[in-house]
Design goal:
Layout: H1 7-10, E1 20-21, H2 29-50, E2 64-71, E3 75-82, H3 94-108, E4 115-122, H4 130-142, H5 147-159, E5 165-172, E6 181-188, E7 197-208, E8 211-223
Parallel strand pairs: 1-2, 3-4
Antiparallel strand pairs: 2-3, 5-6, 5-8, 7-8
Helix pairs in contact: 2-3, 4-5
């Protein structure tokens, strides 16, 4: 029986970094961990409800690649990395949308004595990140596009960013079939056992009318 490990946790300290930066006493560590999860879920839910919707667009996801949280004694810094600009709707100016987001996140923070600082940063080449490709495939499958066509199109987007390899795997009742199966496609090299290889990975659930599909994407960016 094969032993599986998350590619990101396998490479922490070499090619991957933590998304949370803070120290806490052992007895309070679980509280801080739950607080980070609440902050991330609050931001994702707010962006999902207030994002710009373009029915003609091929991409309908949040566009958030990662959320970094840095905690100090009296300050919490939250940096949201997005792949596409103008993510939120215009609400009488962009500042009002930021204030609403900050108020919602402040409610999830347990201590009121700490200040909250939220900043958006745009990333270059968004289709190099697996979560963006996963949201693209999710949008295509919900529009009844063939899963093979969606996978090939996502691979084309990723290959344009000059990556060295990509693998996409979908599992479940694909296409509404009665028997669940696993389908995958790969282009280039994806050396999962090489620690010095920088590999981005994500697991993404796709909710369809036939059930939930499991989507996994591995992207081999480069090698140190």
């Amino acid at each position: 029986m094969g032993q599986k490990i998350n590619p990101l946790g396998f490479r922490l300290g070499t090619t991957q970094n933590h998304h949370s930066f803070w120290f806490e006493k052992p007895k309070n560590f679980s509280v801080g961990l739950q607080e980070d999860e609440k902050i991330r879920n609050c931001i994702k839910n707010y962006v999902q409800k207030n994002k710009r919707i373009n029915p003609k667009s091929e991409f309908q996801g949040n566009g958030i690649t990662r959320i970094e949280i840095q905690k100090e004694i009296d300050l919490i810094k939250v940096t949201i990395y997005v792949g596409f600009p103008n993510l939120l709707k215009e609400q009488k100016g962009q500042t009002k949308g930021m204030k609403d987001l900050k108020m919602n996140v402040q409610k999830e923070v347990s201590s009121v004595n700490r200040k909250l600082n939220i900043a958006f940063k745009k990333i270059e080449k968004p289709y190099r990140h697996p979560i963006i490709l996963a949201e693209y495939i999710d949008t295509q499958l919900k529009k009844r596009v063939s899963f093979r066509k969606a996978m090939k199109k996502a691979i084309e987007f990723a290959r344009k960013t000059k990556i060295k390899g990509i693998r996409i795997q979908i599992a479940g009742r694909i296409g509404g079939k009665d028997i669940a199966r696993v389908e995958w496609d790969r282009k280039g090299r994806v050396p999962l056992q090489t620690i010095c290889a920088k590999i981005d990975h994500c697991s993404y659930p796709i909710h369809t009318i036939h059930g939930i599909l499991g989507l996994k994407i591995w992207i081999f960016v480069n090698e140190k």
